[in-house]
Write a structure and sequence with these properties.
6-stranded mixed β-sheet, elongated, 3-stranded antiparallel β-sheet, alpha/beta
């Protein structure tokens, strides 16, 4: 039988399976357990091809592969008995032991990086609690900070599951009540949490606080504003005098639930009267299908992403041209580039917003790094 190179031998059967099994065992061991050898007696159950070959000489070929693995220093082949019968095959009454010193080389050959001791401890905890979760594989790898013990993490995840059996919570409440007061730990992870715990529990979406400024005249449309300062100033904008102005925090995560009565709460200001309030709520319940809808935000990638996201739920949404036209005029002398904006997460620019006017008049400014924030409008 020819001599294989290390790269060739590692991919031969059963060598590859035996080595992977060895590395998996190492991955679930603590540093204390790693001091113990990993070995096993060679039996038909462990290496069937030595005892029940499927073709002529398969047993001999398999043994030669193991001998070569031994020569490369990956394993040791030791006789269990000092005296051996002449008729025994060399693999009979033999023990295979893995060489810990070969771990680094084997990981490189198999492209299987070493896991940290923390990952090992995490996996051990995961095995203990796997059956508790509906989709346990979501927790198979460390969730977060290595400064916190896997035991503590899983203890808290189990506490959450038991608490959810009694009463529903939001993702923010779960984080704040069970994970060191960190309400934002599961921000935007409602679907992940529902998958983890399954349909037997209920996780609420966070309530969306909608601020609505009602005009003194009968309203003829709605204007969504990206920024709080602009929302406050909008009561003074003559071009928007017949529009209800609406602002909310967290447009990115909230637009999918805008028409759910359970997830929104209104805060009204301006010319508040029951007729206007009831009319707005009725239009909202009808998904605003019969009302002109406008959006005005920053001239930057995030501003246009917010517009595109809202438009997915409100197809009739249009750019509020008076506001954008004002900022476009200012962009000649009063614009800034991405570096000056210190918005590292906004380097990806949308190719289209779904609004032809925006694509023609605003998108080119963003691509040419002439960004203007909405608050510049006056």
């Amino acid at each position: 039988m020819k001599k294989f190179s290390r790269e060739q031998l590692i991919n031969q059967s059963p060598v590859k399976d035996l080595i992977i099994d060895f590395l998996i065992k190492l991955e679930v061991q603590s540093s204390e357990e790693r001091k113990k050898s990993i070995s096993f007696p060679i039996t038909e159950k462990k290496i069937p091809s030595l005892f029940s070959p499927e073709y002529l000489d398969q047993d001999t070929e398999t043994w030669q592969l193991l001998v070569q693995s031994s020569e490369y220093g990956w394993i040791e082949l030791n006789s269990i008995r000092k005296k051996r019968a002449p008729h025994w095959n060399p693999w009979q009454n033999c023990r295979l032991a893995y060489n810990f010193d070969a771990e680094g080389e084997l990981r490189v050959l198999l492209n299987r990086p070493r896991v940290s001791e923390y990952q090992t401890l995490w996996f051990q905890e995961w095995i203990k609690y796997e059956s508790f979760f509906s989709k346990a594989e979501l927790l198979k790898t460390p969730f977060s900070d290595e400064a916190l013990s896997p035991e503590d993490w899983f203890h808290r995840f189990v506490q959450v599951g038991r608490a959810l059996m009694e009463s529903p919570m939001t993702a923010y409440q779960i984080g704040a009540r069970f994970f060191w007061g960190n309400s934002k730990l599961f921000k935007g992870k409602e679907v992940w949490l529902r998958d983890l715990y399954g349909s037997q529990v209920m996780i609420f979406d966070r309530t969306i606080l909608l601020h609505a400024f009602l005009p003194e005249v009968t309203f003829k449309g709605i204007l969504f504003l990206e920024n709080q300062d602009s929302y406050i100033d909008s009561s003074e904008w003559p071009e928007a005098s017949e529009l209800i102005k609406i602002y909310m925090q967290g447009y990115k995560g909230a637009t999918n639930n805008l028409f759910s009565d359970r997830t929104i709460q209104w805060h009204f200001s301006g010319a508040i009267n029951s007729e206007a309030v009831n009319k707005l709520k009725k239009c909202w319940q009808e998904n605003l299908v019969n009302l002109p809808l406008y959006y005005f935000g920053d001239i930057d990638p995030e501003g246009l992403r917010i517009f595109s996201q809202i438009k997915k739920n409100m197809p009739s949404l249009m750019a509020w041209q008076p506001g954008y036209t004002n900022l476009i005029r200012q962009s000649i002398k009063n614009s800034h580039c991405p570096v000056f904006a210190q918005k590292k997460g906004q380097q990806i620019i949308v190719e289209t917003t779904g609004d032809k006017w925006l694509d023609i008049n605003v998108l080119p400014l963003i691509k040419n790094n002439k960004w203007v924030n909405q608050e510049a409008y006056f």
